[in-house]
Amino acid sequence: MSEKLPSNAVVVQSALRELGADGEVIVLPEKAPTAATAAAQLGCEVGAIANSLIFDADGAPLLVLTSGAHRVDVELIARTVGVAKVRRATPEFVRAATGQPIGGVAPVGHPAPVRTLVDNWLSKHEVVWAAGGHPLTVFPTTFDELVRITGGTAVDVE
Q1: Which residues have C-beta within 8 Å of that of residue 40, sequence separation ≥ 6?
Q2: Interval 25-44: pLDDT, tens
Q3: What is the CATH number of the domain that holds 140?
Q4: pTM
Q5: What range defines the domain where residue 79 resides?
Q6: What share of the chain is helix, strand, coil (3-state, %, to 5)?
Q7: What does DSSP assign to residue 140?
Q8: Does any domain span residue 1?
Q9: Which of 46, 25, 2 is nearest to 109 (CA)?
């Protein structure tokens, strides 16, 4: 790491250690507002980027870790988790559920566990890159490790 980690990324790195994950949170040279811009900076396929999307599932937070190559079918996800409606969460809802800003939501390091779904498509990649709690941070992991450290459920998201 060439730069000091932002405070949210320090929390994520600590959570990764506590969960027995191997990846180190790194600071990107530039913000990566899309999976494509993150992939370009990391030199990987866009599908290897694990987008962390927080949804409001009948009032409860739901984290969907989806491949950067996919869009989430909210009706499919609602049926999968057994709720009436799944919709994109507001920035305030995301911050309350995760303690992290949109654009940097990590799969771990939240104030309380968040129900998590992990896109099966991510299993096609040996290395998966996930956000590190801040818009400039990411860490390498694997599909199996993402499922394990989040207590998530592997599903199809589209």
Answers
A1: none
A2: 999 999 888 899 999 999 99
A3: 3.90.960.10
A4: 0.94
A5: 7-155
A6: 35, 25, 40
A7: E
A8: no
A9: 25
Give the model confidence (pLDDT) of 124-147 as tens digits.
999 999 999 999 999 999 999 999
Number of domains making up the chain: 1
Residue 100 identity: Q
Residue 19 carries which DSSP code?
T
Identify the bridge partners of residue 138 per DSSP, sorted by sequence position: 26, 131
Q: How far apart are CA 22 and CA 70, in angstroms?
A: 26
Give domain status of residue 2, yes or no: no
C-alpha 11, offset from chain centre: 15
Do 132 and 26 meet the contact criterion of CB atoms below 8 Å apart?
yes
Whether 116 contacts 151, CB under 8 Å? yes
User: How many other β-carbons are positioned within 10 Å of the β-carbon of residue 147?
Assistant: 20
The pair of three-digit structure tokens given for residue 100, joined into one six-digit string: 């992290």
Contact present, 70 and 121 (Cβ < 8 Å):
yes
